[in-house]
Inverse folding.
């Protein structure tokens, strides 16, 4: 059920991204079809140190944009990914949530972003490893 909610959130983001791409068309003699985005999606369950669990649904668009819906602390947050040196760091689309998810391969980490850039982020969930898909 939770996975279905996460994917529904991602579909809403995809609809916003597609509509934003067609929002300012360049003047042309003939109308061209709107750009077509191809995407892939995947739901992943992680188990973390201390027995904590976290679930994310990833959405990768053909234009390179990456989103994730993260379910944590009884709420679902939308995140957008940015390439990092050795993985992908996702930041909450709602700046008030101040959460980030960093993933490298099958491992992830959830952090609360420090309000002061001179302070270190607080790790909320560490050593989170993706679990095999349930069949």
């Amino acid at each position: 059920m939770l996975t279905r909610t996460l994917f529904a959130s991602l579909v809403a983001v995809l609809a916003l991204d597609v509509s934003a791409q067609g929002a300012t068309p360049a003047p042309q003699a003939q109308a061209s079809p709107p750009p077509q985005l191809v995407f892939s999606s995947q739901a992943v369950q992680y188990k973390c140190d201390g027995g904590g669990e976290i679930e994310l649904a990833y959405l990768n668009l053909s234009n390179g944009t990456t989103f994730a819906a993260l379910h944590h602390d009884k709420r679902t947050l939308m995140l957008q990914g940015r390439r990092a040196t050795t993985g992908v760091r996702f930041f909450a689309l709602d700046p008030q949530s101040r959460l980030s998810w960093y993933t490298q391969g099958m491992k992830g980490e959830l952090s609360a972003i420090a309000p002061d850039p001179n302070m270190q982020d607080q790790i909320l969930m560490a050593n989170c490893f993706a679990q095999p898909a349930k069949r």
About this structure: The longest helix spans residues 2-21. The chain has one domain: 2-19+39-130.
